[in-house]
Amino acid sequence: MQPTVKRRVPFRCLFVAGSLVLSIAAAETVVRLMGQVDADGNFSFQGQPVGRRVPPVTAIAETLTKYQTTNTTRMIYDAETGWKPRPHISTHGGNYRYNAAGIRSPPKTYSIQSANGTLRIALFGDSFTHGDDVPFDDTWGAQLEVKLNELGTPAEVINFGVSAYGMDQAFLRWQTLGRSYSPHIVLFGFQAENVNRNVNILRAFYAGGTGIPFSKPRFVHDDDGTLRLINSPTLSLDRVPQVMANMDSWELAEYESFYDETWFGKRFWHTSRALSLAVERLSEDEPGRRIAPYRLDAEPVRVTLALLRKFRRDVERHNAQFDIVHLPTQSDLKRLLQQHGCAYQQLLERVQQQQILIDTQPRLLAAARAESLESLFQRHYSAAGNKIIAEVIAEFLATTLRDKH
Prior knowledge:
The protein is built from 14 helices and 14 strands.
């Protein structure tokens, strides 16, 4: 090797090493600038936690203070369901209004018994049933009432949906409030992501940055096939931060599927935000992936299927018809449009085997192809998306009612 070439080798190595260091530094800078750090020091990138997790005790305590010192929050603490809408409140520019019972409605009080000859329908579910992002008249429940009356069926639809609810909370809202209104038909809005919520207790572990700082009840599917309710009554407001700060000593910690002490331990790569991001994007062991929510033998699905059976039996004991309405999200439909298939197809088929399922997905998918996916959604359904759902349900119920007579 010529002397000149020998001298070039160290310089090339230094150049490569220097370039690598600069690239790592640039990546670190970009990740840090684009990320956010909460009051407890948790770092998130594009809405996803990165690096060492710290229970968000400070953030939750601050949010709870707001709930304890004001009367303007849309949600309030509830010992039976975790949280519920505040009675007599109007929020979101008047789009969300609740009556004396905390039911979303126009300025209206529903009688305990429906009027003679009027079909009373009760809706239960999460924000996709509640109708987040649209005024009351644009929700699928309100449009269903209009559609049924247009078809010649006098109907009254009561919306018991609550934002951020799990399926378990929807069932308990039926038991504690809904069934006292003696509906003829109960429609449950099935939004598949909620299977995760069914194995969550402290919402802050499931939804980082949540504005709902409460705990929720949760059903455990025991080995004998029975469902057992835990965290009932739910944690009082002052106990939530205490429990979060001392999870390892809490007697129900093993049932909080979104807490694992290994996720809160410090690793050497946590000193770098960029490296932590890379490790977690490549890892199969990050929160959420380990839970395998749609696997038929996994706990979320087992709890969900047992819960839906329990819901149906209780509704039928109260002389009402129980139907499930499939409510796919925008990301669900996007997967189908891109030919990736439905992520929870097996779960959906299992639900359909044991329950009456009103599937709105085909009609929504057809509309997305004919118009655009964006026209059907804001974050939740748009007025147009809600209208399609109402039409599908109205057609199904019209056929069902005709067959009964």
